[in-house]
Write a structure and sequence with these properties.
Layout: H1 2-36, H2 57-72, H3 77-82, E1 86-87, E2 92-96, H4 102-109, E3 115-117, H5 128-131, H6 135-140, E4 144-145, E5 150-154, H7 164-171, E6 176-181, H8 184-201, H9 209-213, H10 226-230, H11 233-240, E7 249-253, H12 254-259, H13 261-271, E8 283-286, E9 291-295, E10 301-302, H14 317-338
Parallel strand pairs: 2-5, 2-6, 3-5, 6-7
Antiparallel strand pairs: 1-4, 8-9, 9-10
Length: 345
């Protein structure tokens, strides 16, 4: 009888021991998996950087919540002051190109904990009325941020507006400038499509793309059509190079940003002297939309607005061929100036 009781006791202890070991192994595996699920590496010495160079992710998330409360009027200016938040002039600007992917680039860069974006296009340098309000007006349009962070704004009209390079140079001659471009003919059609959609919403008629892009009198490319002019990238870039050296520009491949965003974002991180923080975890493909969406953390995901990725109208193939032939020499010069060759036909 005593022997049976001892055997049962040993059996129970073995079962309990197995359960304890199993639970311990589960916890170890769970902690490891949660660590891998971090969307952006916490700044805890993983890259051997000093605390003054970066901002801890948890503190950043708390600060973003505080900023939201401040905008709603639920946090005082004193709270903002105590947390060392400031409104900074941008250290980098996405200056173009319209329909090149400027919004996607800005939103993706905002995944980085050291980047803070201006949500709206400010149009300070290309709008005479806004520019007359002065640099302090511009600064107050910026979001609150840590002093260590980089504020970035985007206004695609900057790239093609004649007065803008000089105005930005007067503000900051060492500023970093981002230009995101797409294959010029595709970009021109995308530009047309956005305008067409706006006309249709107002029940207005609009010319076909072919009639606007090709001069009916000469049957040549119509360089007076704004969508065509905007796609002659080298003409606009040459005006900027009168004020800034090419080293202060970074060219982003907008076509590649759609299909393979991470390599393009890593190049931008390097250009902006940011530690690598954006990973594949932060980008997931949404099959319904046909685009990559953003994952900030386990809870918060974001996709671009439904207006992005509009379906283009069918364009006569001969017009597309004529446009690509027209843009080709300008593209070659653009590659030569920037040092980046893109896979454009």
């Amino acid at each position: 009888m005593l022997f049976k009781q001892q055997a049962l006791l040993r059996q129970k202890l073995l079962v309990l021991g197995s359960l304890a070991i199993g639970s311990l192994l589960y916890l170890v595996a769970r902690v490891g998996s949660l660590d891998r699920l971090q969307p952006i590496c916490p700044i805890d010495g993983r890259f051997g950087l000093h605390s003054q160079d970066e901002i801890p992710l948890r503190a950043l998330q708390f600060k973003r919540g505080l900023l939201h409360e401040f905008r709603k009027g639920n946090a005082s200016k004193e709270q903002i002051r105590l947390h060392s938040l400031v409104q900074q002039i941008p250290k980098a600007i996405i200056i173009g190109v319209r329909k090149g992917g400027t919004r996607a680039l800005l939103e993706m860069l905002n995944l980085h904990p050291a980047v803070v974006k201006a949500s709206q296009e400010i149009h300070f340098f290309d709008n005479d009325e806004n520019y007359a309000k002065g640099i302090e007006w511009y600064r107050k349009k910026m979001p609150f941020s840590y002093p260590h962070q980089i504020t970035i704004e985007k206004s695609p009209a900057y790239f093609i507006t004649e007065e803008v390079p000089e105005r930005i140079y007067k503000m900051n001659s060492s500023i970093k400038l981002l230009i995101i471009v797409r294959e010029p003919t595709t970009r021109a059609i995308s530009d047309y499509t956005q305008v067409l959609e706006g006309k249709e919403r107002k029940n207005k008629t609009y010319y076909k793309f072919e009639k606007l892009a090709i001069d009916p009198n000469t049957c040549e490319v119509n360089t007076k059509y704004k969508a065509v002019r905007t796609s002659i990238y080298t003409k606009h870039l040459e005006r900027w190079l009168k004020y800034f050296p090419i080293e202060q520009f970074h060219i982003v491949d907008g076509d590649r940003l759609i299909t393979e965003p991470l390599p393009e974002l890593q190049l931008v991180e390097k250009f902006l002297n940011l530690p690598p923080r954006i990973s594949q975890y932060n980008l997931y493909f949404n099959a319904t939309r046909g685009f990559y969406c953003l994952r900030f953390n386990i809870v918060f995901n974001k996709c671009l607005a439904g207006s992005k990725g509009r379906i283009h109208p069918e364009v006569d193939s001969s017009v597309i061929t004529k446009l690509r032939k027209f843009f080709h020499p300008f593209n070659q010069k653009f590659y030569q100036i920037t040092g980046r060759t893109l896979n454009w036909p």
